[in-house]
Amino acid sequence: MYLNNPLALPVNSNPGWVFPKVEFKDDRERCVYLAKIASGLFRYKQKFESGDLEPDSIKARDGTSQFLCMDQYYRIFNTYRRPGLERDSQEISDGRQPRDREFVVVLRCNRVFVVTVKEPGSGWLSPSGLAKVYLDILNKDLEKLPVEDAVGLLTSSSRDKWAEHRQRLIEAGNEAAIEAFESCLFIVCLDDRAQNATDEERSQKSRFEQMLHGNGKHFNGANRWFDKTIQVVCSADGVSGICYEHSVAEGIAVVAVLTDVLQSKDEVHIDEDFEKANEAEIRQIDFKINDQIRDSIQEALEAFKNLVDDTDVEVFRFVEFGKDLMKSCKCSPDAFVQMALQLAYYR
pLDDT 10s per residue in the chain (347 long)? Predict the structure, then answer.
């Protein structure tokens, strides 16, 4: 279903999820928070490889339990959605099989950094090492890459257009750069503030839009790569969450993993002097851009602006009841909300 849909991924397909807001006193606290999230994701990757993932189950009406297929979990870190002219494809490796080397891509100021997080002989990068990586990238004296040169915007195009743009990138000598995104475990987006810094309290609407599409081209919309399954997003004002590519797995798998990661993050130890942790390899990628690619980015930029401008979002909090009441009525929360939407539309 998803791979046949030519519409752009942001708004149309990729869901956004806002995490509980946190308060960062400085960049160090932001890096510690992100390192705990990433370490939790690594823990799940290792759990997949060791075969320690417990199967999900559901209760039937007669009270018995039925185990569920877990294949979609194993695709979360090992799948990439590649654009196609007529139909997208998925680049999939076996999530149960360990690899000698693993990478994470970090985006900041619309620029790309590839971080080695696992190497032969030394194993996985420690949580303290991860915090150091994020701080090192934040401390780099970077000018924000102009949106006219931000290749990530191409992934916001309709799928057939992105397939055309991708071929132009490869012909210009960027195949290795694209491969970094296709083979990494996930992406971390170090975002700029998404609105005026004097506005102390951001609306839930603004926070959700940051996860959905980056608040548009003027803020963080170019600091994305929408084909990757998980993009962990975090800005200095304590707003964080994910944008995830939906063809890989249903929401229940991604939500289950991230919920556990969030709930257990305080169990992750990070040294107070994490700046002294062992160095990790950080490699900056600079795309080779010619006039034809700039024309492609401009085309994608205009389409992305129209998409964001044409999307109306409002967030309301409903506190009267939640999923427990729905389940007590022997109705799945998803079905309940779907029926509520249809009733509201009918009325």
Answer: 799 999 999 999 999 999 999 999 999 999 999 999 999 999 999 999 999 999 998 877 777 888 889 999 999 999 999 999 999 999 999 999 999 999 999 999 999 999 999 999 889 999 999 999 999 999 999 999 999 999 999 999 999 999 999 999 999 999 999 999 999 999 999 998 766 555 556 788 889 999 999 988 778 999 999 999 999 999 999 999 999 999 999 888 999 999 999 999 999 999 999 999 988 999 999 999 999 999 999 999 999 999 999 999 888 888 999 989 998 988 888 899 999 999 999 98
pTM, whole model, 2 decimals? 0.93
Which distant-in-sequence residues (6+ apart) come within 8 Å of 134 by Cβ? 30, 31, 34, 35, 106, 188, 190
165 is catalytic: no
User: Which of 213, 218, 246, 269 is the catalytic position?
Assistant: 246
Helices (H), 5-105: 27-50, 71-74
Q: Report the b/e string of 314-330 with b at 16+ CB within 10 A.
A: eeeeeeeeeeeebeeee
Domains and CATH numbers, the chain: 16-316 (3.30.559.70), 320-347 (no CATH)
